[in-house]
Design brief:
heterodimer, A: 163 residues, mainly alpha, Serine Threonine Protein Phosphatase 5, Tetratricopeptide repeat, 7 helices, B: 4 helices
């Protein structure tokens, strides 16, 4: 009976420990993701495309924790950017279906009208184009352009170049 | 009352004495005891039952103590859990990291790709590299992780 009580206590304390660790894992995941992106750049510079892809796949396969609500947008952006890069590598390798898949996965993460979503739309449009799917490509390019115009307008506004 | 010790007792006196004896007998009767011949046999039968009952009592007492301590431990752990989540909720949240504004060159290349210039994707990748580095540095700085 005492053993059961000790086991219950240990389990509860472990549970408490796990719930405490969320934020730490969030930072760890982010640091790991940025490290892998930098490594993927180096590998691409050396012509090691499979190596770079492996690094990027590790980012999306890693457990990106949903710790703090505020951090979720960062998590989403980093993941979407990774999917964009994977789709770009697919396109380079003439794998339009792979590019569609990766871009689609990135877009299912949601998000607003930002650069990362626009990049995914652009790369998905290019994949559709490569597959001869002109209407789908046009729709994606158009959606990307709408976001791009908003970003450009905001950029000009911030720079004082527009009202 | 005039008593004559040698005189035979009256019927009433005999009845009273009998009642008194009976009542005294009832109050002061010693517990019935077994005949010594049977005592050993009865004890042999009864002893295991008594031992079992004593064991049951002891087990029940131990179970009560264990349950009480387990309840206490569970309450303490639940309190720790609630306290930890409360502390986490009241801790300052990580600020939303607004990504750096994309530079005009990057947006121009992105627009070029979106207008059907698939070949410009390589140029977009180049622009994105430096933007990405900038964004990641900012993310890590805000979270206190330092640059990789």
């Amino acid at each position: 009976m005492k053993r059961a009580a000790s086991a219950a206590l240990v389990a509860l304390l472990a549970l408490a420990g796990c719930s405490q660790r969320g934020s730490a894992d969030g930072s760890d995941w982010l640091a790991e993701a940025t490290r892998r992106h930098a490594l993927a750049d180096e590998l691409l510079d050396r012509g090691d495309e499979p190596g770079a892809r492996a690094q990027l796949v590790a980012v999306v396969d890693g457990r990106a924790p949903r710790g703090q609500l505020d951090a979720d947008d960062d998590r989403r952006r980093v993941l979407q950017d990774t999917y964009y890069r994977l789709a770009g590598l697919d396109l380079r390798g003439q794998d339009a279906s792979g590019a569609l898949l990766h871009a689609g996965r990135g877009l299912t993460l949601g998000g607003g009208q930002d650069l990362f979503v626009a990049n995914l739309l652009v790369v998905r449009g290019a994949a559709h184009e490569a597959r001869g799917e002109a209407p789908a490509a046009a729709a994606d390019f158009h959606a990307a352009l709408l976001i791009n115009e908003q970003l450009l307008a905001a950029s000009l506004r911030d720079a004082g170049g527009a009202p | 009352m005039n008593h004559d010790d040698d005189a035979p007792a009256s019927q009433d006196e005999l009845r009273e004495a009998a009642e008194l004896a009976a009542s005294l007998d009832g109050r002061t009767r010693a517990p019935e005891s077994l005949p010594p011949a049977l005592e050993a046999a009865v004890m042999a039968k009864v002893a295991p039952l008594l031992d079992a009952r004593r064991d049951d009592d002891r087990r029940r007492r131990r179970r009560r103590v264990a349950l009480a301590s387990m309840g206490g431990l569970a309450a303490a752990a639940a309190f720790a859990l609630v306290l930890s989540s409360t502390l986490r909720l009241s801790a300052p949240r990580v600020a939303v990291t607004t990504p750096p504004a994309p530079p005009a060159d990057l947006l121009a290349v992105q627009a070029r790709v979106a207008r059907g210039g698939g070949a410009a994707i390589a140029a977009l990748d180049v622009e994105m590299r430096s933007y990405r580095r900038h964004y990641h540095d900012q993310l890590l700085r805000r979270r206190g992780g330092g640059a990789p």
